[in-house]
Amino acid sequence: MIKFFLMVNKQGQTRLSRYYEHVEINKRAILEAEVIKNCLSRSKDECSFIEYKDFKLVYRQYAALFIVVGIDQTENEMAVYELIHNFVEVLDKYFSRVVSETLNLL
């Protein structure tokens, strides 16, 4: 099950966050800061799956944008990784030029 969905820029600023389980506002800020730090500190050669506390992080980088999904231990990481890419493709179709430059960099 997906616990949260984040879109973050390279500066570590959250651009979009959606939580599918209740998390208190002050704990969200701490959680986001730790998750962002973990994902942004990794090199492109490292795996896009991270075990963090009681869940897993699956992230994907598109140019200056990171999309991070927090999932429970039973979820399939590869399926979520593909879900992220499909989400970006939908954004590209809907907004045409907003994300297309990001996809071309891959």
From TrEMBL:
The record's section on InterPro entries has: AP_complex_ssu, AP_mu_sigma_su, Longin-like_dom_sf
The AP complex mu/sigma subunit domain is annotated at: 1-99
Membrane topology classification: Peripheral membrane protein
GO-annotated cellular components: cytoplasm; endomembrane system
Keywords, A to Z, come to: Membrane, Protein transport, Transport
Does this entry carry the keyword Protein transport? yes
Q: How does it assemble?
A: Adaptor protein complex 4 (AP-4) is a heterotetramer composed of two large adaptins (epsilon-type subunit AP4E1 and beta-type subunit AP4B1), a medium adaptin (mu-type subunit AP4M1) and a small adaptin (sigma-type AP4S1).
Q: What is the protein named?
A: AP complex subunit sigma
- The gene that this protein is the product of is AP4S1
